[in-house]
């Protein structure tokens, strides 16, 4: 399988033979499993305080007020879960092991399958990405891209290639998160857009990081979650020539 190599002006500069990894069988089940394991292993330990539900100064009025005793009992009665402000019956335990595991071969196959999914225009479109319908996937750019230092230079390349609409889609899709997350440092949520895969962490890691929903990673570090956010394969991805050579060993 061959792919067109584009220069920074979006013009066809050359062609390159894609590594065999891009022809890996599509396995959405393994991809979803690998993403789920990665998410589980990032979870922070969470549990109830040892004295939760036992610190209130409330006391029972006793009888004679037409009021139930047990829900307002002081002392040992408040330890039961049905009392007002009583403790939970089975609260989350901080010592619980929330991590998950996946076989090494299955994890490797999941990454390879997710890489191959980036060549399927139908899958990429199903994820909601917007790009020029005539654009050949995967998008490969020559190694001059790795020397870019300015966000404006990356935007110019995306406009010339027909990928800028996806950044605009992510920017316009930014919205206020529902729930308590707003008060915990993550007020906004932004749709995922383009993934840039390079051979090393150089200019693009700084030049592209301000683009809405975009991520930059290296061929050696790219994982299933990078390629299939939310366990949905087919992320719109831009590869550099050197990255293609390195990803062949994944």
UniProtKB/TrEMBL annotation:
It holds the Pfam family Ribosomal_L4. GO terms for biological process: translation. InterPro entries: Ribosomal_uL4 (IPR002136), Ribosomal_uL4_dom_sf (IPR023574), Ribosomal_uL4_euk/arc_CS (IPR013000), Ribosomal_uL4_euk/arch (IPR045240), Ribosomall_uL4-arc (IPR019970). One of its GO terms (cellular component) is ribonucleoprotein complex. Gene3D superfamilies: 3.40.1370.10. Residues 57-105 are annotated as: Disordered. Keywords: Ribonucleoprotein, Ribosomal protein, RNA-binding, rRNA-binding. It comes from the Archaea. GO terms for molecular function: rRNA binding; structural constituent of ribosome. HAMAP family: Ribosomal_uL4_A (MF_01328_A). Part of the 50S ribosomal subunit. Forms part of the polypeptide exit tunnel. Belongs to the universal ribosomal protein uL4 family. This is Large ribosomal subunit protein uL4. It comes from Haloterrigena gelatinilytica. The lineage of its organism: Archaea, Methanobacteriati, Methanobacteriota, Stenosarchaea group, Halobacteria. The gene is rpl4.
């Amino acid at each position: 399988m061959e792919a067109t190599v584009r220069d920074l002006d979006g013009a066809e500069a050359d062609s390159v033979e894609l590594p065999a990894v891009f022809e890996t069988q599509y396995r959405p089940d393994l991809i979803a499993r690998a993403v789920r394991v990665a998410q589980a292993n990032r979870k922070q330990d969470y549990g109830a305080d040892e004295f939760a539900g036992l610190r209130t100064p409330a006391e029972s009025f006793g009888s004679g007020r037409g009021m139930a005793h047990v829900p307002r009992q002081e002392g040992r009665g408040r330890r039961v879960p049905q009392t007002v402000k009583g403790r939970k019956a089975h609260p989350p335990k901080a010592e619980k092991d929330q991590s998950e595991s996946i076989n090494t071969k299955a994890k490797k196959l999941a990454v390879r399958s997710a890489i191959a999914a980036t060549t399927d225009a139908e899958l990429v479109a199903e994820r909601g990405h917007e790009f020029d319908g005539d654009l050949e996937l995967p998008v490969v750019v020559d190694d001059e891209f790795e020397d870019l230092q300015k966000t404006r230079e990356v935007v110019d390349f995306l406009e010339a290639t027909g990928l800028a609409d996806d950044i605009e889609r992510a920017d316009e899709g930014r919205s206020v998160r529902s729930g308590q997350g707003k008060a915990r440092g993550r007020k906004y949520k932004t749709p995922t857009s383009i993934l840039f895969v390079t051979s090393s962490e150089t200019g693009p890691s700084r030049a592209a990081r301000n683009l809405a929903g975009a991520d930059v990673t290296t061929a050696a570090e790219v994982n299933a979650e990078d390629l299939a956010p939310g366990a949905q394969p087919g992320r719109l991805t831009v590869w550099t020539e050197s990255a293609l050579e390195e990803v062949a060993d994944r």
